[in-house]
Design brief:
The chain has 171 residues and is mainly alpha-helical. It is built from 7 helices and 2 strands, in the order ααααββααα. The protein has a two-stranded antiparallel sheet with strand order 1-2. A hairpin with a 6-residue loop joins strand 1 and strand 2. The protein is globular, with a radius of gyration of 21 Å. The N and C termini lie far apart (54 Å).
Length: 171
């Protein structure tokens, strides 16, 4: 006889996950990752032609002193929080995260950064802090072990006319 464990997910559980997904800490972490990857210009990229018009109007209003100037990080956090939509998929424990942008690459990047931040935040909220700390420390240790191996491989390839891996990764 086979034993199985059934997990029952309630609507409250799904709604809790939606709240975590759209929470300020998740949006802050996603914005920080986007800014680290793309620079401050990421906060100024409009999501549509209408968005560009609205952003221009907001900048004009800030320039003439009608509204306070908002820093790039805060602008991106607000943008993510207002433009990401999350809907529960009926009759399931799945949620659908969507974001619209006229750049498919930007949309995918933003959604992926929000999901990465959500997964990390979810792990912290729902797991034992000791386990999270342990796995974080293990990941950092393995990263430190990986770096000299990658450098040795790069040195070997360069020495044998195979090219520089760090240059290949940046392309």
């Amino acid at each position: 006889s086979r034993s199985s464990t059934a997990f029952h997910t309630t609507l409250e559980d799904v709604n809790s996950e939606i709240e975590i997904l759209l929470s300020r800490p998740v949006m802050e972490q996603a914005a920080d990752a986007i800014l680290a990857e793309q620079g401050p210009a990421a906060a100024r990229k409009p999501s549509s032609p209408i968005g560009a018009l609205i952003d221009g109007f907001k900048t004009f209003c800030a320039d003439i002193g009608l509204v306070p100037e908002v820093e790039a990080r805060e602008k991106l956090i607000l943008h993510l929080a207002t433009q990401m939509t999350v809907e529960p998929v009926p009759m399931s424990n799945i949620v659908e995260l969507s974001y619209t942008n006229f750049s498919v690459n930007a949309a995918a990047s933003y959604v992926n950064h929000v999901l990465d931040a959500y997964l990390e935040h979810h792990a912290r909220v729902h797991s034992d802090e000791g386990a999270y700390g342990f796995f974080s420390a293990q990941a950092a240790e393995y990263q430190l072990q990986l770096e000299p191996v990658q450098q040795a491989l790069t040195d070997f390839k360069v020495a044998n006319d195979g090219g520089d891996l760090s240059l290949q990764e940046s392309l």
